Amino acid sequence: MFSNFDFDVIARSLPYLFYDGMTFTLTLTVLATAGGIVFGTLLALMRLSGFTLLALPAAAYVNLMRSVPLVLMIFWFYFLVPYIGQWMTGAERPIQVGSFMSSLVTFTLFEAAYFCEIMRAGIQSISRGQVAAAQALGMSYPQTMGYIVLPQAFRNMLSVLLTQTIILFQDTSLVYVLSITDFLGAASKIAQRDGRLVEMYLFAAVVYFVISLAASQGVRVLGRCTAIIR
Amino acid sequence: MKLAGPAVIAIREVSKWYGPFQVLNRCSTDVAKGEVVVVCGPSGSGKSTLIKCVNGLESFSEGTITVDGVLVGDAKTDLPKLRARIGMVFQHFELFPHLTVMRNLVLAQIKVLGRSPEQAHEKGMALLDRVGLHEHAHKFPGELSGGQQQRVAIARALAMDPIAMLFDEPTSALDPEMIKEVLDVMVALARDGMTMIVVTHEMGFARQVARRVVFMDKGEIVEDAPTAEFFGSPRSERAQVFLSKILQN
Quick check: A139 and B108 CB within 8 A? Predict the structure, then answer.
């Protein structure tokens, strides 16, 4: 049944697929993960702070982000961010942010909500006795968090955080709504141009599968290596 | 009762409620410099809560506690700064499991007291020597036995050069064969003149080093007497019942 297929199209388009497409996909994944973890950890600290003024907005943010479809978020932000930029800087025209910045902002804000919940669980997994011990040594709140609680929470949650990153890696393909050339976008463009839809989409699926599977195996190994000795 | 010297820790009429439940009821006592005071009593009597009030790990509703003249409950008090001067040892050790023994000993010295890493390391090594764990400096807490972990925890508290030490049931989570190694360290510490409040059921330790025994029940200090007097002729019926139970085994 594959006799009519032209798998040569894949070989011909490899540089474009990986150099243009995959680079974008991986850059977006890495940067959005880094930003999401930082912002998500701050949100988690706010939710756990015990101050309603901090906890409530953080909880509202997380619940809002988790209730809206990602595609819609990408779409909205692409049109909204220029106007928010205009409003914030007081410029005369909407700020041109470009599709990469727009999608990076979207994914960072969206993932922060998920990373917040992961970090919240991680922080709550650290016993109160650890906090008491740090406080008894005279450590301030930032020191207690920075040296004692967060490093342990982070290690306890490392495999969950990385699994979320793998999901993010797959989700970045949704930027197709902005006609961005990510890996799937690149494959899609070749497919349309050469009329080789089945070959290209099959190849794209295999690549996503292989990378995700390899990454999740890597996460399992890493989880065993970084576990805290108890 | 009369003190041997000026009070390092003064607890005055301290009360605490959890909702309608009163955990501490007008507790008052003093601890003089160099004095060792053992706090005992049935579980749930508020012993741990009381000593956690001393370094502000627990808040209290009424009364005052002063440590070296500084009011603990006062909003203006720099609590982290005060805590850095009071050592505390916990029932479950609470070493930081993601750091090596040496990092456990130097972290607060460097970050809280601002000592240089070399200074802190030297101090840490000296204290590990003192508790007999010199060769375990680069291990993680999880690789040590319970008794060894508690000795590291004592060394960690001592590294801050505290003016007083609080022990919250330091041997309760230990296997019987490890209790002695921890008590030996504490006895040596008491002999060196450290001011100590020790919550414990180890009556042998109390007899050996305590100058006074404070007996608590239902959030109240029922008896506060010199050690010999407490064991020889406890005045209250509750202390008599408690002693008869605990000394049976």
Answer: yes
- Taking CA B6 as the corner, what is the angle to CA B235 and CA A138, rounded to the nearest 5 degrees? 100
Indicate the pTM of the whole model: 0.88
pLDDT single digits (tens) A172-197: 999 988 888 899 999 999 888 888 88
Question: Hey, are the CB atoms on A138 and B80 less than 8 Å from each other?
Answer: yes
Of B80, B65, B92, residue with least CA distance to B197: B65
ipTM of the prediction greater than 0.85, yes or no: yes
* Residue A128 touches chain B, beta carbons under 8 Å: no
Whether residue B67 contacts residue B148, with contact meaning beta carbons closer than 8 Å, is answered with: no
Indicate the number of domains in chain B: 2
Contacts of A155 in chain B (CB under 8 A): 98
Are residues B41 and B101 located together in one domain of the fold? Answer: no
Residues of B with Cβ-Cβ distance to A127 under 8 angstroms: 92, 94
**Cβ contacts of residue B25 below 8 Å, gap of 6+?**
B15, B218, B219, B220
Q: Are B170 and B91 in contact (CB under 8 A)?
A: yes
Task: Name the CATH superfamily, with its identifier, for domain A2-226.
Answer: MetI-like (1.10.3720.10)
Does A133 contact B96 at a Cβ distance shorter than 8 Å? yes
Question: Where a domain ends, among B147, B162, B177?
Answer: B162
Chain B contact for A27 (CB, 8 A cutoff): no
Show residues of chain A in contact with B85, CB under 8 Å. 138
| Residue given tokens 């007899």 in the structure block | B207
CB-CB neighbours of A89 under 10 Å: 9
